[in-house]
Specification:
Cyclin A, domain 1, Cyclin-like_dom, 3 domains, repeat, 0% strand, mainly alpha
């Protein structure tokens, strides 16, 4: 790996500390040694990726990463974050920029510094950031390098490189021309990409909520209009049905046409007193048998009244006539 003697000495001391504290139990010596080497490289800010160390020792990268995290936690070490600038020179050499390698590397480092100010480097893999910066720097200096080329050198996916480029494309720095980028030092900082994405998502949700509220309000108003219209139709039907029922009761109910004619036929024989005592509503409530009985009763009263009157005037003649 060509890490130098200082990395070897620091890694050996880390291994001694781990051995003294019993951290090598249940773990292979190669795993512990590789974890100590990566600790030393990170502490001395050497451009060593975990993938390179994993390939060199033949250990799974996730197992090696877990070992590194455990050693750092149990040895109480404050390891600084890996600076993406440490990988620029190494990746630039592999991409073969020729005589302009130093110029491209300098431009890539300038881009990385701008990414750090815009919080793009926070929480991101340094190799992915270095790959994105090198791709932009190569295109600035008219080198034909693709996302696949830089992703293969940085050992990251093309999607990771594309994602970093998209995040950088949302910053005001990406809107500057090449001359302005080299001459103007843009001091303003942007919000972290995660915060901007969350804010945009909240705005989109609010817009969707407003649209949904408007649509639901329109649907509710339309539904209310339909309900009111249907209620009016039902009310009209009830009124017409009520009128029809009253007419039907009048014609085909308790007072039939025959009763009506029968009443008109004998009404002249009913005395004024009897008519005044029986209102129209009372006559309408009488059934046919009761009405006939009432008519006969009233007729007999009229006859008796007439007989009584003749009896006093002409007793003998009235008696024979009756």
């Amino acid at each position: 790996l060509r890490l130098g003697s200082d990395v070897s000495v620091s890694a050996f001391r880390f291994y001694q500390s781990a051995l003294f504290r019993g951290l090598t139990r249940g773990r292979g010596a190669m795993h512990t040694a590789a974890g100590c080497i990566y600790l030393a490289a990170r502490q001395l800010r050497v451009s060593l990726m975990l993938l390179d160390l994993s390939d060199a020792v033949g250990i799974n990268v996730y197992v090696l990463g877990h070992c590194y995290v455990e050693l750092k936690r149990k040895l109480h070490l404050a390891i600084p974050d890996m600076d993406p600038c440490l990988f620029i020179e190494r990746f630039a050499t592999q991409l073969e920029f020729g005589d302009k390698m130093s110029v491209v590397a300098t431009t890539a480092m300038r881009l990385l510094q701008r990414m750090k100010k815009d919080w793009i480097a926070t929480g991101r893999r340094p190799s992915g950031l270095a790959a994105a910066a090198l791709l932009v720097a190569a295109r600035i200096h008219e080198f034909n390098r693709t996302e696949e080329d830089v992703a293969r050198v940085a050992r990251v996916s093309q999607q990771t490189t594309r994602k970093r480029l998209q995040e950088f494309g949302r910053t005001p720095t990406s809107k500057l021309s090449i001359d302005d980028f080299f001459s103007v030092d843009y001091e303003e900082e942007q919000d972290p990409p995660a915060f901007s994405a969350s804010k945009k998502s909240d705005e989109n949700i609010k817009e969707m909520d407003d649209e949904a509220f408007s649509r639901i309000s329109a649907e509710i108003n339309e539904l209310e209009r339909r309900i009111e219209k249907q209620l009016r139709v039902i009310a009209e039907k009830r009124v017409s049905r009520s009128i029809f029922n009253k007419l039907s009761d009048l014609v085909f109910g308790r007072l039939s046409i025959l009763n009506l004619l029968y009443m008109l036929l004998f009404v002249t024989k009913i005395s004024i007193v009897s008519i005044s005592t029986h209102s129209l509503s009372t006559l309408l409530l009488l059934d046919e048998g009761r009405f006939n009985a009432e008519v006969k009763y009233q007729t007999s009263i009229v006859g008796k009244q007439a007989m009584g009157l003749g009896h006093w005037l002409y007793p003998s003649q009235e008696k024979e006539r009756v």
